[in-house]
Amino acid sequence: MTKPRPVEFKWRQFEPQLILMAVGWYLRFSLSYRDVEELLQERGMSADHVTVWRWVQRYAPELDRRLRSHLKPTNKSWRVDETYIRVKGKWTYLYRAVDSAGDSIDFLLSARRDAAAAKRFFQKALCSPNHPTPRVINVDKNPSYPPVVEVLKSEGTLRRRCRLRPVQYLNNILEQDHRAIKRRVRASQGFRSFWGAYRTIQGYEAVHAIRKGQVRWVGVGQIVRQLHFIAGLFQIAI
Known about the structure:
The protein is of the alpha/beta class. The chain folds into two domains: 7-70 and 195-233, no CATH class; 77-180, Ribonuclease H-like superfamily/Ribonuclease H (Nucleotidyltransferase, domain 5), CATH 3.30.420.10. It has eight helices and five strands. Strands 3-2-1-4-5 form a five-stranded mixed β-sheet, with helices on both faces. Helix 3 crosses helix 7 (194-211) and helix 6 crosses helix 7. The protein starts with 15 loop residues before the first helix and ends in a 5-residue tail after the last helix.
């Protein structure tokens, strides 16, 4: 008896395994949607680049959501920084954080680089059960961080003992980590909408965390196990 399709793939023309394969290629490697279209054609699949874009928009956020409960806890020494992403011809700000071991904590895409955006980012990162409340937060020279941290302490979101440490060289590990995301952004040839960019970056970050070995029982370089893990999140056998 044929196993029914997971509800997320109902009414799709292609098999779930093939859809996840195409989405995985796009999120894992520095490819454009047209590159993925050509790779699919080599395998006898006629799916154009717009279809691949729709798949990424649908399944990248779902991958990120399902992944969260499987991540190992990060440590209590955070590195926080922003980088720039062009969306619809305008620069936006990608807030990102990793711990001192380089493990991804969270991200936020914002149209502005101000105190409100910094506060949203910290609130988002701190609400996850995978990230213990930090002991120290290392930041760059962004002047919005100190007042935001003080507000979060007064609200009880951050511990009073949490130190804010503006030491530039300690953020080198995060600067290096930015590159993996920026390579994929460059290959995508730009984003046409803010929320389209946000959903795509959710997928970039999720796959990047898996590749860095942040999932329990799935190590760095264990490519086949990583692929099986992603398929398992969607209840698909490969």
